[in-house]
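I am writing to request your help with a piece of structural work I have in hand. Here, with my thanks, is the record as I have it:
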Amino acid sequence: LHIILISQILRRNIQAFVESHGVGHITEAELRFSSDDIQSYYRAAGVAISPEDAAKVEHNTGGWAAAVYLHLHALRERGALLDASGIFPMMEPLVWDALTEAQQTFLLRLSPFEAVTVHQACILAGYGKLPDDALEALNSPFIRFEPMERRYELHSILSGLLRLKRREW
């Protein structure tokens, strides 16, 4: 029997109990990539990176997997690592700028919602049927399609970027 507790924050008394009874405990540190992990991950993805660059990625991302991936994507697409730290400055050139103006407008119209059905997306964007460019915008690693409910769910990271862009708009 394995009991798994998932929590962002453990109260001290629960954390002390977990630690004193030999219960497996995964902390934030285990979920981060070290510079060695980053170098191995990039190598497995077919991209060579120096130890210095891996350390730079670790510093800029805090080892957070999604941000490490965005740096990998930038390195592949642009041939250089991103200088920005923080997820939104990294996402903007790789995710936002890669969209057409029509796709950006479409996503901004969906942005107040965490999830939308195909029918709701059409209504919000003023379409009778989703055009190819809208479907292409929805085909993002930061948007998940739930086929049973025919619903698109925006990842919180993308939602945060869209909130910033909506304010600018």
The longest helix spans residues 65-78. The longest strand covers residues 143-146. The two ends are 53 Å apart (CA to CA).
